[in-house]
Amino acid sequence: ISGDGVMIFFRLCVFSLMWAFFGQSLCAATVVNDESLTAEGDGSNWLGFGRNYSEQRYSPLDQINTKTVSDLGIEWVMELPKDKSLLATPLVVDGVIYFTASYSVTRAVEAKTGKLLWEFDPESIKNAGDRLVNMWDQNKGPAFWNGKVIISTIDGRLIGLDAKTGEKIWEKMTIDPRKAYYITGAPKVFKGKVIIGNGGTEHTAARGYVTAYNADTGEQEWRFWVVPGNPADGFESDAMEMAAKTWNGEWWKYGGGGNTWHGITYDPEFDQLLIGTGNGSPWNQKVRSPGGGDNLFLCSIVALDADTGDYKWHYQTVPGETWDYNSNMDIVLADLKYGGQEIKALMHAPKNGFFYVLNRENGELLSAEKIAKTTWASHIDLKTGRPVEIPGARYEDGEQVVWPSPFGAHSWHAMSYNPDTGLVYIPTIEMAGTFRDSGINLKAFKSPKSHVEVGVEFGMEDTPEDWGTAKLQAWDPIKQERVWEHKLPASWNPGTMTSKGNLVFEGRADGRFVAYHAETGEPLWSIELGLGISAPPVTYSVDGKQYISLLVGWGGAGTIAGSHAAQHGWKYKVHPRRLYTFSLDGNIPVPYSPPPAFAVPLDPPDFEVDEALATQGLKIYSQSCFLCHGGSAVSGGMAPDLRESAIPLSATAFSEVLIKGALVENGMPRFKDFNSEHVVALTHYIRKLSLIPIS
Ligand code: CA
User: Fold this and answer.
1) What is the pTM of this model?
2) Among residues 137, 294, 324, 462, which one is catalytic?
3) Listed residue (638, 555, 429, 505) closest to 87, CA to CA
4) What sign for the dihedral angle of Cα 323, 326, 329, 335?
5) Strands 168-173 and 157-162, how do they pair?
């Protein structure tokens, strides 16, 4: 280090001490930009969704390590009484935690004390209006860029907030509000821009796209469409013209899908965006693209030029997809050694059951192996890069049981990569899906306007308690083999975080938060937090002390899996939602949380179920109610269990809620197209289900 260097270092220290003296954090001036988001840093901050651009969720902090972790305890707890689903990765910048909760309500909290600094409510329910029928309350987290916190909302907006005050600086609508698009994903920043996609594949004739906006002003910079529109309207790009050759029929009438609702990574080394694209709209390819075809760019990783959004290369994980096997899962960057050569790799484990390693310079497939029971394909042919499908898997004869289910072998729950151990820590699910279209007139399929309809039977049955199993796996991405594993409670477990302390942290569906030895998998510490955990932890330090923060609030698609989700007893609104922060000298006891609670269906003696009406009710329920209230009216906790609700027993009360929107403020949408026949049919269906014993 040169003399000048010493002087600069000295001045920095004096400056830092002055800040410390005035009660500020030691590094009060982190600028969140390409430089800081590319660097490994000292671990004091967690600046981006996956900590930095690599999305590795690896922290270089080691104060909490295999020897000290037994001392880990609760430093402080923030109660979040208004929130429901908490899925977000909090960001931490200079000792301040920024996180999004239900309906993207955003809070800034002092990391040392848990003191609330500001709160911003984007009023998502109000802005969604009648579009609320397509939407959950969930959000996966904010982005941070140059003094601004940038959030997404379910109703389709991006909002830039002043990180100091929480005041709104800009707001941009990113979707056509006449369509059933919505956003649950976290925005991602890069080069002064912020990018966001959307969901909606299952609700409408959705055509997926991502849009990049100026992070300072919200002005649109570029948009990339994932699937081609009607060729008669002309193509937006050469990529769409190329993609259109892989489709058949009149796919544009059904939207095509490909919605990019998660899984966007900026790769600074090749100055490209890597986007993980969604499944088809509708799911059933017989409807969407009769006669087959790869249907680009469904279920792919597509590399885009960061400045223009132009197509660079793609790799498709599921050509001609027909099972909801989207590739929306996280895309993790790492340098991996292959035969003595260092490869700039990306790692990706989509729903389809395989773990992929690609060369991200050109999209070349390096390897792919199964991480869970997978019966739609026997293997991936490394010469062609294509899956070798198993005959029958496409439910050619109208019905087939296939692994994985539409919940995926791996969903959006983050995997982490530890460069010290060389292992990936990934939560996985083994669950079968029944794909049945034998009773559906596929030729008459019309895309829904807002309810759920996918061209195969969906949400018609309960998901039993023993339908699936789950694991935490430590996976060697070079050897493509499992190094250790732990059985997890079924089936919906959150993302992981790993650290230089040789640890892996993961919450669990049963409310336990666990630290494992990163090399051996030995559980070293755990704590019961009194509610199913659905968010990944983050770690950071303030004034030299390492902390871990974790949102606790059961949520996400897995919580609609009927009896399978309900078995944990995380009944709607019973258990407190919280932000927990841990440290080595934290010693606060876990605040009270009621024990697991289970629905007790009402059984009114004077109600007789009319089978025909109940069958009508099933159809309505599977299209409009199932996505929150759970399969077979068994709630997994996202919404009230209708079998024990008194509201459906009164036609007047039920109509007030369903048609007039009496409970909109709770997130229960108004179904303006429903009439009294819908109400009666649903009542008979719910009463019928109330008489079925719980599995
Ligand atoms: Ca989907």
Assistant:
1) 0.95
2) 324
3) 555
4) positive
5) antiparallel
Distance 202 CA to ligand 1 centre (A): 6
Note the pLDDT of residue 194.
98
Rounded Cα gap, residues 216 and 197, in angstroms: 19
**H or E segment to which residue 38 belongs:** helix 34-38
> pLDDT per residue over 283-338, tens digit each?
999 999 999 999 999 999 999 999 999 999 999 999 999 999 999 999 999 999 98
Q: Give the model's pLDDT for residue 4.
A: 53
Residue 689: its H or E element: helix 676-690
Angle between helices 676-690 and 611-624 in degrees, nearest 10: 100
The answer to whether residue 62 is catalytic is no
Give the residue carrying structure tokens 């982190």: 30
Give the Å distance between the CA of 690 and the centre of ligand 1: 29
End-to-end CA distance of the chain: 68
Neighbours of 295 (CB within 10 A): 29
Please tell me the predicted confidence (pLDDT) of residue 24: 45
Centre of ligand 1 to C-alpha 184, Å, is 13
How many Å apart are CA 63 and CA 540, to the nearest integer? 10
pLDDT tens, 47-63?
A: 999 999 999 999 999 99
The whole-number average pLDDT for the span 511-538 is: 98
Q: How far is the CA of 142 from the centre of ligand 1 (A)?
A: 22
At 680 the three-state DSSP class reads helix
Strands (DSSP E) contained in 142-251 are 143-145, 148-152, 157-162, 168-173, 188-190, 193-196, 209-214, 220-225
How sure is the predictor about 540, in pLDDT bands with cuts at 50, 70 and 90? very high
Candidates 296, 280, 318, 626; CA nearest to 447 is 280
- Residue that wins the pLDDT comparison between 93 and 340: 93
Residues contacting 540, CB < 8 A, separation 6+: 43, 44, 45, 46, 59, 61, 92, 111, 546, 547, 549
CA of 454 to the centre of ligand 1 (A): 9
Task: Please return the burial class of 167, using the count of CB atoms within 10 Å of its CB with bins 0-12, 13-18 and 19+.
Answer: exposed
Do 506 and 529 form a contact (C-beta atoms < 8 A)?
no
Grouping H, G, I as helix, E, B as strand and the rest as coil, residue 652 is helix
Distance 437 CA to ligand 1 centre (A): 17
> pLDDT tens across 629-658, in order?
999 999 999 999 999 999 999 999 999 999
Pairing of strands 264-267, 578-583: unpaired
